[in-house]
Design goal:
- It comes from Micromonospora zamorensis.
- This is TrkA family potassium uptake protein.
- InterPro entries: NAD(P)-bd_dom_sf (IPR036291), RCK_C (IPR006037), RCK_C_sf (IPR036721), RCK_N (IPR003148), Trk_Ktr_HKT_K-transport (IPR050721).
- The termini are far apart.
- Helix 4 packs parallel to helix 5.
- The strands form 2 sheets. Strands 3-2-1-4-5-6 form a 6-stranded parallel β-sheet, sandwiched between helices.
- It folds into 2 domains: 114 residues, NAD(P)-binding Rossmann-like Domain (Rossmann fold), CATH 3.40.50.720; 87 residues, Regulator of K+ conductance, C-terminal domain (Alpha-Beta Plaits, 2-Layer Sandwich).
- It is α/β, with parallel strands linked by helices.
- Helix content is 36%, strand content 25%.
- It is built from 9 helices and 11 strands.
- The site of one adenosine-5'-triphosphate has 21 residues, from helix 1, strand 2 and helix 4.
């Protein structure tokens, strides 16, 4: 049985983005109510998702009937139609849904969503594009960026540093980054310490400014 303690999430719009989101939440054992106005989409996802209903989400009466007010969170995953996306957010605001996430497809769209009352605006194409750009030009395997100037990244041990220890390398002084975890091939990640030796083919978890982290990992 799924959680249904207000931990449930309404996902509106089962396009490419919305269907992956709804499927991921379902795998995370969350109660998901998926809504799409197109009966073909509803039919398509009815086997994969627990509750998929056909409704026009721009109508607050329809949302109310579906019991949307008992959900703590809603995600408006509609992208192409700015009008449908904005009207849906507005309907959710009027119903008093506590946490509304909305997907924007442009900066202007994002601005409108915030001003009508979306609590979180996401911009998946822009975010993924930027993220993949970083991954392509650098040797970062994965990273999270905070406030545009701080990052935590997983990087391959740079070839030039194999065999050295952190005590010997002093990455904080020399590169402005701190190595916080290390993993030798076939082993698990461990906290890094002064005597951590950088293994050939190993991985490191590094934190610091995004530029410093990129420089430490080495350009491609
Ligand atoms: P994606 O990139 O995620 O595929 P998209 O921008 O190509 O999305 P959209 O036109 O935004 O596609 O549609 C996403 C889904 O939202 C579609 O399945 C569509 O039927 C649904 N949708 C659009 N408007 C509404 C609405 N008013 N109520 C419910 N669902 C809607
Ligand atoms: P996105 O989700 O990134 O907006 P999309 O799936 O909605 O992409 P696509 O039809 O894939 O849109 O087109 C993305 C861009 O690629 C368009 O600007 C299109 O003109 C361009 N494009 C499509 N096919 C080709 C091609 N064969 N050669 C060069 N450019 C192309």
């Amino acid at each position: 049985a799924r959680r249904s303690d207000g931990g449930g999430i309404v996902v509106i719009g089962l396009g490419r983005f919305g269907c992956h989101l709804a499927a991921s939440l379902t795998r995370m054992d969350r109660e998901v109510l998926a809504v799409d106005r197109n009966p073909d989409q509803v039919q398509r996802f009815s086997a994969q998702l627990d509750r998929v209903v056909q409704a026009d989400a721009t109508e607050d009466g329809a949302l109310r009937q579906l019991g949307v007010t008992s959900f703590g969170r809603a995600v408006v995953a509609i992208g192409a139609s700015v009008e449908a996306s904005v009207l849906t957010v507005l309907a959710l605001v009027e119903l008093g849904v506590p946490q509304i996430w909305a997907r924007a497809t442009s900066q202007k769209h994002a601005k409108i969503l915030s001003s009508v009352g979306a609590h979180h605006v996401i911009f998946p194409e822009a975010e993924t594009g930027e993220r993949v750009a970083h991954l392509i030009v650098s040797r970062l395997l994965d990273f999270i960026e905070f406030d545009d100037d701080f990052a935590i990244a997983t990087v391959r041990v740079p070839e030039s540093l194999v065999g050295r220890t952190l005590l010997d390398l002093r990455p904080e002084e020399r590169s402005g980054v701190r190595v916080i975890g290390a993993k030798a091939p076939g082993e698990r990640f461990r906290f890094a310490s002064d005597d951590t030796a950088l293994a050939q083919g190993g991985l490191l978890v590094v934190e610091g400014g995004i530029d410093q982290v990129q420089r430490f990992a080495g350009r491609r």
